[in-house]
Amino acid sequence: MSRSPMLRWLPILALQCVVLVLVTSGPVEAMVTSALAVSATCLYAFVSWRAQKRLRDAEAGLTAELVHRASHDPITELPSRVVFTERLEQELRTVTTGTGALTLLELDLDGFKEVNDMFGHSCGDLVLLEVGRRVTSTLGSADLATRLGGDQFAVLLSGADADNAEATAVLLAEQLAEPYDLGGASVDLEVSIGLATAGPGDDATTVMRNADTAMYHAKEQRLGRAHYDEAQPMATVESLAGTRLSLLGDLRRALQDHEIVLYFQPKVDAVSGHVVGAEALARWQHPERGLLQPGTFIEMVDRTNLSRQFTNEVLDLALAQVSRWAADGLEIPVAVNLSRRSLFDPSLPASVARALVKHGVPPRLLCLEITETTMVSEPENVVQLLHQLRALGVTVSLDDFGTGYSSLSYLKDLPIDELKIDRSFVQHLTDASSRASILVSAAVDLAHNLGLSVVAEGVEDAETLEQLAELGCDVIQGYHVARPMPADQFAPWAGHAGSSAGPAAIESAG
Q1: Alpha-carbon distances of 70 from 58, 64, 234, 314, 377, rounded to whole Å
Q2: pLDDT tens per residue across span 398-448
Q3: How far is 38 from 41, CA to CA, in rounded Å?
Q4: 7-26 b/e with 16+ CB inside 10 Å = b?
Q5: Residue 146 — φ and ψ, nearest 5°?
Q6: Is 228 helix (H, G, I), strand (E, B) or coil?
C-alpha cells in the first residue's frame, strides 16, 4: 500500500527527535523542553500538511462540481446549451464538406404552463426531468439532447437525413405523449416538434433558427410536427410574437368597441332529435383580419387581466340573445364557457346575477361550463364558487371530461348538473380496435348514478350518434347535428329540427 510523502517522513522525524533529546546536554528540564519543541514542530508540519491536502481535495471537488454544472442542465442533467452548440458546430463542419448529414429537432411541450400553475414548479421540474429521460432513451448513442430553457428541448440527430429524422420525431412524440405520474395525479402532455435538416454552408444559428421556426409553425397550426422548408412560407418567431402583441392590443380595443360576437351550436336530445339547448362560442369580428376563431385569442384572454371583462361581455351577449329568443317564443337554454382564471374571480357570482337581472332571463336558462382541468388547482375554492353560482339557480357543466386530472373520488362531491364527454373519446367510438365505447359507457353509467345528465360533443356521423343513443347518452352536439351558426340562423334551424322527431330530423335540418 502506498503512503503519502508526509506519512513516510514521520518515523524519520520522530527518530530525529529521540536522537536530539539523547545528545542534548544539560538538565533534564532542558532535554524535555527541546523534545517538546521538536515534537511540536513535527505536529505542526503534519497538521499543516493535512489541512493543505483537505483544501486541495475540496478545491478539486468544487472545481469538478462547477465544471459539471457549467456543462449540464441543473434540472434534467442533460448537456448544457453551450456543450450542445459546440457539438452542433462540430457536426456542421462534416455537412459542409459533404461527408455527413445532420437534422436538428426543437421540441416544445404543449400545456406545460398549466402543470406549473396547477401543481407548482417542483412538479413541473419532475416533468422536465422525465422528459429528458424519455428523450435520451429514444436517441442513438451518436445523438445529443439539451434543454434550451423553460419547456423547450433540442435534439441533434447525427447522420440523419429528413426521412430518418421524421421517424425519430414520431417516436419522440409517442414517448412524450405517455402520461406523467405526479404522485397520484396523472398528467398528459403533447409536444410540438420542428425539424431542420442542415445544408452545406449552414451555421449553428441558421439551423437552430430554422428548427425554431418549424416548431412554432407546427404549434400554431396544431400539426404536431413540421419540417422546415424554404419553399414553404412559415411565420418566424419574431413575426408570431409581434402578431400576438398586436392582437393583444387590438383585443383591448375590441372589448371596448364590442367586436366580440357569438355563434351558437345546437345541443339536441340523443333519441328524439329535439333541440334542448345551445353552446355560445365566441368569435372576434376583427376590422382588418376578419372573423377570428377562438383559438386565435382565447389563450390571451385567460393569461391576462382581460379575463373578467371578456367573461362579462360574453355573458351579456349570450343572455341578451336568450332574452330575444324568449320574446319570440323560443326558450333555449344557453351554455357559456368559463375560463380557469374567471373561476378564481370572487366577483363572478355577482356578475352573473346582475346579467340575469339585466336581461330578465330565468337562471335555469343559463348553463356555465368549466373544464375538468380547472378543478385541480385549489379545488376547495373552486367548489365553493360553484356552490355560489348554483345558488343563483343556474346549472353547471363539467366540460372535456376524460382529458384532465380529476379523481373520481371527488366527482361525486362537485356541485355540477351535467357531464360533457370529450370529443377525443367520441370520435373513436366506432373504431373496432378502440376502447372508447367501454370508457364512454362507464362515464354515462357513472354520471347517471350521480344524477347528472350526459352530453357527448364532437359527434360527426350518424353511426356515432346511434351508438351514443344506445349507450344511454342524453344529449349530443357536433358537426353531424349542426355547425356553430350566427344567432339569426339558429332560430330557423331550431324550428325546422323541432318539426319532426328522431335522429333523421337532425340530418334533414343539418
Answers
A1: 18, 10, 35, 51, 35
A2: 987 866 545 555 677 889 999 998 887 887 788 776 677 888 888 899 889
A3: 5
A4: eeeeeebeeebeeebeeeee
A5: -150, 160
A6: coil
Whole-angstrom Cα distance, residue 293 to residue 279?
15
d(C-alpha 139, C-alpha 420), whole Å = 39
Q: List 195's β-bridge partners, or say none.
A: 105, 227
Q: What is the DSSP letter of 72?
A: B
Read off the amino acid at residue 17: C
Q: Pairing between strand 152-158 and 102-110?
A: antiparallel
Best CA proximity match to 268, nearest among 460, 475, 485, 508: 475
Closest C-alpha to 337, from 379, 391, 287, 373: 373
Give the span between the Cα atoms of 121 and 284, in whole angstroms: 34
Residue indicated by cell numbers 416548431: 215
Phi, psi values for residue 493, rounded to 5°? -60, -45
Torsions phi, psi for 456 (to 5 deg): -110, 125
Residue 457 neighbours by CB under 8 Å, 6+ apart = 420, 421, 422, 423, 426, 476, 477, 478
Q: Determine the Cα–Cα distance for residues 118 and 134; give it in Å rounded to an integer.
A: 23
Contact (Cβ atoms closer than 8 angstroms) between residue 182 and residue 162: no
Q: What is the distance between the alpha carbons of residues 59 and 57, in angstroms, rounded to a whole number?
A: 5
pTM of the entire predicted model? 0.59
Run of H or E residues at 15: helix 5-23
CB 138 within 8 Å of CB 105: no
Q: Are 312 and 356 in contact (CB under 8 A)?
A: no
Distance of alpha carbon 5 from alpha carbon 2, whole angstroms: 9
In three-state secondary structure terms, 400 is strand
Helix, coil or strand: residue 86: helix
C-alpha angle 359-363-365 in degrees, rounded to nearest 5: 85
Q: Measured over all CA atoms, what is the biggest interatomic distance in the chain, rounded to whole angstroms?
A: 131
Residue 379: what are its φ and ψ, rounded to 5°?
Answer: -60, -30
pLDDT tens digits along 434-469? 677 888 888 899 889 999 999 999 898 999 999 999
Say how far apart CA 249 and CA 459 lie, in whole Å: 36
Across-strand partners of 194? 106, 226
Sole residue written with cell 404522485: 183
Q: What is the DSSP string of 303-364?
A: TSTTHHHHHHHHHHHHHHHHHHHHHTT----EEEE--TGGGG-TTHHHHHHHHHHHHT--GG
Sequence letter at residue 156: L
